[in-house]
Amino acid sequence: MIPTYWEHEIVQVKAHHKPERFDVVVLHPPDAQTELYLKRVIGLPGEQIDYQNGRLLVNGAVIFDKFAEQTEDFSWSDSYKQVIPEGYYFVLGDNRSISKDSRIFGLVSEKQILGIVQEGNTKK
């Protein structure tokens, strides 16, 4: 999540009910259940996500994402056959060129999300 968060940075995490778009969450990735990742929620249940020419498209509508220009083109239909199911999320790291995220390990279930990072309250 560099430059937003640095390795070994202490963050405050609050419990979650339903993450919102652009919340940073702490999660266990589907392919490494003992690890903890910080990722940004991009896609919500019922949506499909595309990145084209440095823009985030949610169900075809352009949504501002401050990291979109750093994101390689991504076509939802190349990886998924239907919209994000209820109880699942599409997450990306802020350092998009090297992030291991939903583009690699797939959607994250709500059960894998431990909490939402309380932004603005970080300490080094």
Your description of this structure?
Its EC number is 3.4.21.89. Keywords: Hydrolase, Protease. It is found in: Cell membrane; Membrane. The chain is mainly beta. The protein has a single domain, classed as Umud Fragment, subunit A. 6% of the residues lie in helices and 29% in strands. It has two helices and nine strands. It has a six-stranded antiparallel sheet. The chain has a three-stranded antiparallel sheet with strand order 4-5-6, with no helix packed on it. A hairpin with a 2-residue loop joins strand 4 and strand 5. The longest helix has 4 residues. The protein is globular. It starts with 12 loop residues before the first strand and ends in a 7-residue tail after the last strand.
Task: Briefly characterize the structure.
The chain is mainly β.
Strand order of the largest sheet: 1-9-2-3-7-8
Sheet with the most strands, sense and barrel status: 6 strands, antiparallel
Count of helical regions: 2
Q: What fraction of residues sit in β-strands?
A: 25-35%
Kindly provide the radius of gyration, computed on alpha-carbon positions and rounded to a whole number of angstroms: 14 Å
Number of strands: 9
Membrane topology: Single-pass type II membrane protein
Subcellular location: Cell membrane; Membrane
Domain Peptidase S26: 1-118
Catalytic activity: Cleavage of hydrophobic, N-terminal signal or leader sequences from secreted and periplasmic proteins
